[in-house]
């Protein structure tokens, strides 16, 4: 295993970290890290120490935004975890992945109070806080990407192979073990500094893995992590959902052709003429899921690759704060995409929290459907 020495000294004298050189007529401007001790500065990439610190208002805006995200994400994902665990009809093998995703998203935003506190204090608040924040972010972020791929596989198997592809509890638990076996090394390697490390970024109020140190070890870590934690999960998500859309379209086409041969309008019984066709609903759901995954993690992947292999001058503190916002946003949306669109989930939620006014009706039984057809 590669070992990296991060107990370096700061590359510029401490007095130079306080003020930018003044032009005639200008007042001094403080640089990022100007008020930190030497033992804190060794944990911060030199790249950030060249930039002017942001205004207090920028910090407070981000703290307010993260507070809103935290409330929505913790409530939404907390409800998903609670309902899916206590409601017997929802205890299915496939829903184990939905719970796992909700746990990842919950963890993603459970660490947000550290960022909010750092923002209110307007800067870096210690190495321990940074490590906790980055570790929780790595576990939840990489875990969510791998879980998205597992959900895509499960839905593909269920739709494309309805008889052979049904998920069992044993298979689901094996996949969950595989997910976390796949994820955890990329979290503990930087934490233990065996390979890479967790460092502050941007305004020094958030932390992530080091993608800025100009070393071969850093480039190797970022490149491999890009493939393992981004390219592979994203490729699986896109592949499985594209296969679902293709399968459904082909199935619907076959039904229409068979109905035409039999000189009937449709082979589906009790079809609602105003309802959207199945292929359109599946296509919209697949496109939404793929878009959320790509939109959430592509900016972060691009920033990391630029930091390791590209022009670092493009990565200003403000620019690098944007990808984190995308990641937090998807943690708020996931409960709605994966769970609130689930009729049984809405039904259980309406039973346990009637004040929400969901009013989801139980699905009609076979006898009720037959009775309604006879009456008509």
TrEMBL record:
User: CDD domains, from UniProt?
Assistant: 7tmA_photoreceptors_insect
Q: Which GO terms describe its molecular function?
A: G protein-coupled receptor activity; photoreceptor activity
Q: Which Pfam families match?
A: 7tm_1
Q: Which UniProt keywords apply?
A: Chromophore, Disulfide bond, G-protein coupled receptor, Glycoprotein, Membrane, Photoreceptor protein, Receptor, Retinal protein, Sensory transduction, Transducer, Transmembrane, Transmembrane helix, Vision
Q: Which GO BP terms, alphabetically?
A: phototransduction; visual perception
Task: Note whether Transmembrane occurs among the keywords.
Answer: yes
- Where located? Membrane
* Topology versus the membrane: Multi-pass membrane protein
Report whether Membrane shows up as a keyword of the record: yes
Q: What is this protein identified as?
A: Visual pigments (Opsins) retinal binding site,Opsin,GPCR, rhodopsin-like, 7TM,Opsin RH3/RH4,G
Q: Which organism is it from?
A: Cinara cedri
């Amino acid at each position: 295993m590669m070992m990296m020495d991060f107990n370096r000294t700061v590359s510029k004298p401490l007095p130079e970290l306080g003020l930018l050189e003044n032009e005639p007529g200008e007042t001094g401007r403080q640089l990022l890290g100007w008020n930190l001790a030497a033992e804190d500065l060794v944990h911060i990439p030199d790249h950030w120490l060249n930039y002017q610190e942001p205004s207090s208002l920028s910090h407070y805006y981000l703290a307010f935004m993260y507070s809103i995200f935290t409330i929505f994400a913790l409530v939404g994902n907390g409800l998903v975890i609670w309902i899916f665990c206590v409601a017997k009809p929802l205890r299915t093998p496939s829903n184990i992945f939905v719970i796992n995703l909700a746990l990842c998203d919950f963890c993603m935003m459970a660490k947000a109070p550290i960022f909010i506190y750092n923002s209110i204090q307007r800067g870096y608040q210690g190495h321990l806080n940074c490590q906790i924040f980055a570790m929780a972010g790595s576990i939840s972020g990489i875990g969510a990407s791998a879980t998205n791929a597992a959900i895509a596989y499960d839905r593909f198997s269920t739709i494309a192979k309805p008889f052979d592809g049904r998920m069992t509890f044993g298979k689901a638990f094996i996949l969950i073990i595989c997910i976390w076996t796949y994820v955890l090394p990329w979290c503990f390697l930087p934490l233990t500094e065996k390979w890479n490390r967790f460092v502050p970024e941007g305004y020094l109020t958030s932390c992530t893995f080091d993608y800025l140190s100009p070393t071969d070890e850093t480039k190797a870590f970022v490149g491999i992590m890009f493939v393992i934690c981004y390219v592979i999960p994203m490729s699986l998500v896109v592949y499985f959902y594209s296969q679902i859309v293709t399968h459904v379209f082909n199935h619907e086409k076959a039904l229409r052709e068979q109905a035409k041969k039999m000189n009937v309008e449709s082979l589906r019984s009790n079809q609602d003429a105003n309802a959207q066709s199945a292929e359109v609903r599946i296509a919209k759901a697949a496109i939404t899921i793929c878009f959320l995954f790509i939109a959430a993690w592509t900016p972060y992947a691009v920033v990391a690759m630029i930091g390791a292999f590209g022009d670092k001058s493009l990565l200003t503190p403000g620019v690098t704060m944007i990808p984190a916002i995308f990641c937090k946003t998807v943690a708020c949306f996931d409960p709605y995409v994966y769970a609130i669109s689930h009729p049984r989930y809405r039904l259980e939620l309406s039973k346990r929290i009637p004040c929400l006014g969901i009013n989801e009706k139980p699905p009609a039984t076979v006898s009720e459907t037959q009775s309604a057809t006879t009456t008509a």
